[in-house]
Amino acid sequence: MPTYKAPVNDYKFLMHNVFNLQQYNNYQSFKEATPDLIDAILEEAAKLTENIFQPINQSGGEEGCSLENGIVSTPKGFKEAYDQFREGGWQSLTGDPEYGGQGLPLSLGVALNEMMISSNWGLAMYPGLTKGASETIHAWGTDDQKGTYLPNMISGDWAGTMNLTEPHCGTDLGLLRTKADLNDDGSYSISGTKIFISAGDHELTENIIHLVLARISGAPDGMDGISLFIVPKFIVKDDGSLGDRNGVSCGSLEEKMGIHSNATCLLNYDNATGYLLGPENKGMRAMFTMMNEARLGVAMQGLAIAEVAQQNAADYARERIQGRALTGAKFPDDAADPIIVHPDVRRMLMTNRAFSEGSRAMALWAALQIDISHGDPEEDARVKAKDMLALLTPVLKSYMTDQGVEAASRAMQCLGGHGYICEWGMEQFLRDARIAPIYEGTNGIQALDLVGRKLPRKNGEVIRAFFKVIQNFIDDNKETEGLEKYCSLLEKALGRQQAATMWLMQNALENPDHAGGTAHYYLNLMALVAMGYSWANMALTAKTMIAAGEGDQAFLQNKLKTADFFFTHLLPETTALRIKVEAGSDDVMSLDAQYF
Ligand SMILES: Cc1cc2nc3c(=O)[nH]c(=O)nc-3n(C[C@H](O)[C@H](O)[C@H](O)COP(=O)(O)OP(=O)(O)OC[C@H]3O[C@@H](n4cnc5c(N)ncnc54)[C@H](O)[C@@H]3O)c2cc1C
Fold first, then answer.
1. Ligand 1 within 6 A of 196 CB?
2. CB under 8 Å to 437, separation ≥6 — which residues?
3. Rounded Cα gap, residues 216 and 191, in angstroms
4. Which candidate among 99, 187, 222, 312 keeps its CA 20 to 30 Å from the CA of 508?
């Protein structure tokens, strides 16, 4: 059976040493987040996820959800685990104090999120969806709507969902058909079918607040005619108590590849009562407000699965004995050496480790942009942080989820045939991982978003700001002892990204297929540069602490060794990626469709 140990020390290193979160204690959300409180939360989150979530992950995946007589049930133990999560106040960690939240920094929420997904992805999705839905209501709701729904959602007593997809439309939501008819009392009657709705129905909470995209009768076709509605499973009465069951029901549960313990529902809306959320026909804008934070949550799924798969692969590689080390037996008294002596097994483990630790730093950097954009007293700083987050979001969502799948696959490879056998849990990790590049906007769409919308944003000002952050770091540290090689390699990678950006600017306007055909490569090139910056930043901190004799010296030395691996084995991929961008799309598009 697989095991899980939450990366508490890595988070402490990042939060206290690399990013020095204390520097933000003039922000409301950081005021109470003292180092002691941060440590206590990380340690308690580790206990929750290691002891409550993880033990029912494998059994939950095997059992899956069920639908009987119209009632959806989650696997054995999920309700009890969810109750512990809710009673522990975890759902409210980063929620607005005005509605019962604890108002703590979102960067702390990111750490909790990673641990929950690593330990039990299917279970973690129920509160994850609630968070997305409650934040959307927070951003767009009237005072009345916020007062009605937020306290119970922030406490975790009620859950939430996001309903976009329909049978004939996923990426192209302009085609959606779910309709909304205005009632005399100002509410709407919602009718239509939504598919693939995560956490769409369950018994974990007494009510579920669905956020549903629909077209008001008479509204324009396409994206400009879509509105967003609050559709509660049970109507909430004026006194806040629950009334009648609304006209929304689960028609079926999807049979799927992974995350079996999360109920992926087909939801039928049959004249369900809905309440307009945000302005009429601006539903896509309301949804997109929340996208950056939701997509960062999905990016964390890639990291989370890589982390837990890696931990189990490393444990196995230390135990499993096969063959002898190429340089001579390491354990001559045993029948064979453990497979961790083999460089090819090391290559897989080091790749996963460099990805996980680099991604964690990169994701925390992005999450901090959310905290800055909400909390900084200076408007200029808030705007810049928001822009940086918007730029980084598609990069992290796509790169981290693609690499999450690769990391889970590499981890499985370390176990040989046993990795393919269910008992060891690696195949569950790989199956679970595969959804993340698909939902919350496919990774292909993330790449188009980066190249088509984010690069030209504000006439290129935002991408130039990204270049500047990295160039400033290089200029400040290229002569710092021990940092020279990292800075020099990072500068070359940055130069490749700048050249690829220039190529796109010069060629994509004249032929948009050049943007579409190379966006995936450009995104990965940028992700490696961002991760290179994150690794260089960690290396700088580790070197400084080692020189001062502070911290756990073995932990810090290991950071530097993993940084070395990243710079020599992963960052060089930027060379090939630049070449692929500059090759354009001619060869991608040359074959006639019938010959595929
Ligand atoms: C397990 C699971 C859970 C889900 N949870 C939810 C949920 O909670 N709520 C919800 O609303 N939806 C949910 N979804 C739906 C998910 O978000 C969609 O499946 C996804 O957005 C893709 O839509 P699609 O499946 O219709 O694929 P399509 O849109 O048909 O896309 C097929 C392929 O074509 C590509 N493509 C499409 N258009 C373009 C374009 N313009 N340019 C380039 N490439 C393009 C896509 O990238 C993809 O590779 C879930 C899906 C699954 C499987």
1. yes
2. 398, 401, 402, 405, 443
3. 11
4. 222
* 185 part of a folded domain: yes
440 labelled catalytic: yes
- pLDDT tens digits, one per residue of 35-83: 999 999 999 999 999 999 999 999 999 999 999 999 999 999 999 999 9
Residue 549 lies in a domain: yes
Secondary structure E strands in 261-308: 264-276
In a domain, 305, yes or no: no
Q: Do 129 and 263 belong to one domain?
A: no
The one catalytic residue in 135, 307, 357, 440 is 440
Rounded to an integer, what distance in angstroms lies between the CA atom of residue 397 and that of residue 399? Answer: 6
- Domain of 171, in residue numbers: 160-282
Q: Does any domain span residue 435?
A: no
* 3-state DSSP assignment of residue 111: helix
pLDDT in tens, 401-456: 999 999 999 999 999 999 999 999 999 999 999 999 999 999 999 999 999 999 99
CATH at residue 83: 1.10.540.10
Is the CB of 73 inside a 6 Å radius of any atom of ligand 1? no
555 lines ligand 1 (CB under 6 A): no
What confidence score (pLDDT) does residue 293 get?
76
> How does pLDDT run across 335-373, given as a tens digit for each residue?
999 999 999 999 999 999 999 999 999 999 999 999 999
**Ligand 1 centre from 296 Cα, in Å?**
17
Least Cα distance to 490 among 302, 358, 348 occurs for 358
For the domain that residue 203 is a member of, what is the CATH number? 2.40.110.20
Q: Which H or E run includes 328?
A: none
Kindly report, residue by residue over 119-134, the tens digit of the pLDDT.
999 999 999 999 999 9
Q: Is 164 in the pocket of ligand 1 (CB under 6 A)?
A: yes
Q: Is the C-beta atom of 197 inside 6 A of ligand 1?
A: yes
Q: Domain boundary residue among 229, 250, 282?
A: 282
Provide the CB-side half-sphere exposure for 208 (13 A, CA). 26
Residues 27, 128, single domain; the answer is yes
Show which of 282, 307, 341 is a domain's final residue: 282
Q: To test ligand 1's pocket by mutation, which of 129, 438, 588, 596 has the most ligand atoms within 8 angstroms of CB?
A: 438
Q: How far does residue 172's CA lie from ligand 1's centre (Å)?
A: 9
Instruction: Kindly report the protein residue whose alpha carbon is nearest to atom 17 of ligand 1.
Output: 439
